[in-house]
Design goal:
- The structure is a homotetramer.
- By secondary structure, chain A is α/β, with parallel strands linked by helices.
- In chain A, helix 3 packs across helix 13 and helix 10 crosses helix 11.
- Helix content of chain A is 34%, strand content 25%.
- Chain A has a seven-stranded mixed sheet with strand order 5-10-8-9-7-6-11, with no helix packed on it. A six-stranded parallel sheet of chain A has the order 17-14-13-18-19-20, sandwiched between helices.
- In chain A, strand 6 and strand 7 form a beta hairpin.
- Chain A is built from 13 helices and 20 strands.
- Chains A and B meet through helix 1, strand 2, strand 12, helix 3 and helix 10 of A and helix 1, strand 2, strand 12, helix 3 and helix 10 of B.
- Strand 20 of chain C pairs antiparallel with strand 12 of chain D.
């Protein structure tokens, strides 16, 4: 047993994104569609038309689909009059009131379509009958008076989103309504953990691109555990990341600061250089682990569990470590190999390395970008993965929470 | 005389945005289209098909359209083999080389489609014939060797952008390739000036939402001239904006700092409070202008030229001025009236006031957002104007350059 | 039993901040000082001189103090030659090497002070004796050769930080070395929790200024617990915060999104308006709690535990709620009362309200600012509390971690 | 003829920064000082005392100095009673009213010091005599009533800024009032131009560190002129900067976009790769200039006028160009040579390269940092130049305006 209803879309519905949005709404909200008629506008100035039956398992599923289609410009194939319900009190809307978009809107009263005046988002529509003449306008909550005839439900309403101009000129871009849902942090971290677990369960590889802020902000132990337990298969980072991580193992500090007590012990600032100097003396990271110099942390777990790591050099580096690939072309090639093997890439607070890895990824690799700077997240998401999620948060709280989700 | 060619699109081409992109490409690049066949996938799992003739005035117009369609996943209806040209030297590509996208790609060699290995963006495709066996892979510039058979032109190439997953679950969103063209600052300011001039020429109204940073960063005189000359019809701002502007007229300072010499004269910090106190004593801004207290600046020009202004109060305000509407509901109503009258809204460095104005705008009003914070620009553009342009720049340099464009 | 040593400072040591830094170093690192001689430069161009005995409980405490004083420009009163130790290997520094600042530096060899060439931060100093002539220069780690005579320890080194120019002109400000210690996130949250617990233990009051992002990012339940358990005595927020919080209680959503499942239930976008409408109908927040409409959340706990709250209106508001003070002047007065009563203010993701509260605070109130935008944190810290801590992080992870620290 | 007055400072005036501030105020505002008495607190818990005569050429200079000293905690050596003036009207302050700081404050009435209640910044002090009892409190502008006895002038007021705690513990840092003067953009650019002209007039060298955004945002021609005219002696940049710059010369585009018309010509996206490929074919940048391939732009002017340039490679690079130093250690050495030669460094929109250059600079080199991201500017200014200026603005407008100031 299914339920269904028929909607129509008309106009420049392909290039204004309405058809795409209609299909997306139906699929996202758990419905099916059956295109009963589709006439494409065969040239630039001809309009298209689509009549689509929307099918769902039950009314509870169908209703929100129709509502969203409606807000996007679809109209019911068999229009009825709008339902008008008196406001129960001043400043109070009747149950089920229709909440406006910011698009031009008509409302059907006594069989006629009436334009709604003063269109504004998130308002109620109030219909005024003055003898034979009927008018409609938006009202904000504090404009509602008891008894006002407020439109409730979706019936009898027609929304007309702006269409893409036929000629684009001047500075203005055509913006399509993007619902950029912010999501609660803890809940999104849970979802990312699930995606990583799923990738691993399917035999996939997880590559983690990590900046030094991961260590400095206290995320080192969490990432080390993810490497040890096999949730992270490979690390792509720079010289600084590895030095910070190993400084933490050798001295308990990061750039000279004790990451537990936050005190700066004597000569703390030298720890950074000493770490590099000692690892050079040992011959490299693997040798430093072998001779017991490094006993914990991300680099330790990489060596101990035989995980692949690439450290790419940069002109900001101290040292660098013997393991750091100082030639940019050679480093790109190593990164390219890592990128090709990855099924999911976790980019943590490292714009330079994330861009370098991102440049080598096909559009089919899943990407997670975490950075405290929204511009960095936007830039990385724009690089072209088709399956991507960005999170503007603090890696110092993200990594421990992610590790907890995956490991506990 | 026109030229034309026929391309095909196949797959989930509506909800993955490919049809929209195809139409947009043709129109943006100055072509026309004629849909010769269109079969819509009537349900979620059925694919659609489109055969479209692309028409242009000449080859020079047609070629880039076909190229872009191609990069977006369209294929030529009558495929031919790819053109292979030997690389003239190590690290040097032949003229007209095909530059890859990051999408899965096939290349046609000897009548067969061969998958391209190691897909990566902005690379060349090199074809290797080893006896009967043919393979193709991407190579970066520094991987090219003299004599490599590099694909040139667009013929014989098939790009397959990822399609929107039929089931959306988990944290990953479906990203569509957005070419977010950064534009040279001076050139974009020129375009915005033209849009303002055009709006005025058509009898439209320009509303400027302005934050105190406009005055503090030195943009006051420019904005005052735009008000005087009628390029700005109305000002929507807060108490702070008006006080800064009038402090500049009364004392030559902004928050106590001389905006020309940048020196802090004696008691400079009191100028802010004095300005408010004096305007209160006079009875309001208009009275202060009338009695010669205020002799220049944005507020002066508003009074002198009878331009509408709304000053909305906030809990951060000093004073406030008698003209400031301290009640938030009353202020919203005044802003609503301004917003409804506007044909183009210029939002300058004021998140709070821009959001308040934006909330009242229909989706058809043109919007220009200028702020030094990219997150502010993004947030304002997301609010739903269909015709919008954002610019991440310094109002202290933007306003003088805009005024110069419009007035000189 | 204590240990001590004597250092000297000379030059424009007061207005260049060196004296202040010297006192701060001694106190921060657990020492005492005894000023043996102090001659102040009595006019602008005269230099000052200070001879100070530094006293500590043991060598382990004294040493880092002397080291830091040294880096800041103090010299040992009885200078000895620098210790020179051969580098054990290429790229390897000897134990205890002296790591340079970026200030002009001399090194004492055979009783003479020799200027160090090519001053650069974080390098080693290598001394070269060529017959009678002695020279010294900085070397980075990868420039060190086995056998190089590297300065170790602090003895025999003289650092000369730039002094404040006697005449300030032009755009350049005099910058003093600010050690801006980034701190690991989890560890800093622990310290903030302790400060709150301490304030409460001393009978103080904690005021929390909260933006809607607290609720939207999932921090609502944590903050509600802090209110219930008495760690937060008062809430200063806006209309939006309260509506989001109560929408969560009434519908399980925030701006229409289910904060657990992140799904958008039917008509989700209306929940925001409904919440306001229902609370208006009930008569206000307290009435809505009393009639069982609101059963959990921050506002519920405020009513149930009789905590003070102020909701200040703004021109962005929907509604607003009957409890929201729409007049800006009246709202400021209510905020002023809250601010005067507070001993510690926790500012969470709300620039507007935090600035309004901050404007009313004396400089003696402790302030904690948490925001994901570093510019917001900087702006709030700059407003003049003498005891302040800022944290650039995600409130959606901060609040749960803070609640866990305090309550578990 | 000079005028003078005597002030006293008492307490922990060195380590709380008050002495430094006092000296700075006198010098910044054009005065002289004569220390008449100075007793240093010889140990941590002992207070210091300073009696200082402030001397200036005239009253107009002396007054603001005394005012600022006063706000910072200095008191007049011979205190008099505060001047009380009735408020002329509701909400109006008398001329010369004293505007409060947020520090604890006393006011002297009838020979007695009375504490001011409800201390808050930027308020007036109102004194209330009720019979024998005298009280004083702050009032905001809208709290003033006609006839209120308002303190005017600086006499009879004592401000007590918080002192640095003797024991520092917990998360709170001791903040000192930083007057972070924002300055009008155009006026600050003028000052930077003067500093560059001055450096050149003294025979100094100007090094410009430039990111690709300089070209992309339209700043290329301006920078090229500065190189040609000798205002910039050397360029430190990356591969991308040089490619963008030469692409502009060869094709008129930057990353494929026409920087004048903002149109994307056919195959625009390939221009970037072609530029690299052609320069490789020619043998390098100098060869490309010699054979007439490159005829304008920054790199052209460097070659044509024999200016030094260093292009340091990175893992993000396409190509790279033959001139790009791909090895990070070798590149650092080249950058180090540039840095040591520079007298003024102009850092334009390039975090990576600016940090690399900054790492090699002594603290005495003048530094100008320009970036649209405030966090980048802060990070660069924090690296330790004693003479530095930062500007948060758009290089696309900054460079043309700077060039105009210097060249026209």
């Amino acid at each position: 047993m299914t339920v269904s209803d028929v909607v129509e879309l008309e106009g420049h519905i392909i290039d204004s994104g309405l058809m795409e949005r209609a299909f997306t709404v139906v699929m996202d909200l758990g419905g099916e569609f059956d295109i009963e008629e589709f006439r494409v506008g065969t040239s630039k100035d001809k309009e298209s038309y689509c009549r689509m039956r929307v099918i769902a398992d039950d009314e509870a599923t169908l209703h929100p689909i129709l509502h969203e289609l409606h807000q996007s410009g679809a109209t019911l194939a068999a229009p009825t009059d709008a339902t008008l319900t008196p406001a129960p009190d001043d400043n109070v809307v009747p149950d089920g009131f229709y909440s406006t978009t910011n698009h031009p809107t008509d409302v059907r009263v006594d069989g006629d379509w009436v334009g709604v005046d003063n269109i504004e988002m998130d308002c109620a529509i109030v219909v005024d009958r003055d003898g034979d003449s009927v008018s409609a306008e938006t009202k904000v909550l504090n404009g509602i008076e008891a008894g006002d005839l407020v439109v409730t439900g979706d019936a009898g309403i027609r929304v007309k989103p702006p269409e893409r101009p036929r000629d684009s000129s001047g500075p203005f871009g055509f913006m399509r309504g993007g619902v950029s849902a912010e999501r609660p942090s803890a809940s999104l971290i849970r979802d990312i953990a699930e995606a990583i677990a799923e990738t691993k369960a399917q035999g996939g590889r997880v590559l983690c691109v990590a900046g030094p802020a991961v260590i400095h902000s206290g995320g080192g132990p969490g990432l080390a555990r993810l490497v040890r337990e096999g949730y992270v298969d490979a690390i792509s980072a720079g010289n600084g990341f590895a030095v910070h991580d190993m400084e933490r193992s050798m001295y308990g500090t990061s750039l000279g600061m004790d990451v537990e007590t936050m005190e700066h012990p004597r000569k703390g600032h030298k720890h950074h250089i000493y770490t590099i100097s000692e690892v050079i003396r040992a011959g490299g990271i693997e040798d430093a682990v072998d001779e017991g110099l490094i006993t914990e942390g991300v680099m330790y777990e990489c060596v101990d569990n035989d995980r692949d790591f690439v450290l790419a050099g940069s002109i900001r580096d101290d040292g660098p470590l013997p393991d750091t690939i100082t030639d940019a072309v050679e480093a790109q090639n190593a990164i390219r190999d890592q990128a090709r093997d990855a099924d999911l890439v976790l980019m943590l607070s490292s714009l330079l390395h994330s861009v370098a890895v991102g440049n080598c990824l096909p559009s089919t690799t899943r990407t997670v970008c975490v950075d405290i700077n929204p511009a960095t997240v936007t830039q990385l998401l724009d690089r072209g993965s088709a399956q991507a999620v960005g999170m503007v948060t603090d890696v110092g709280t993200f990594v421990p929470m992610l590790a907890e989700e995956l490991l506990e």
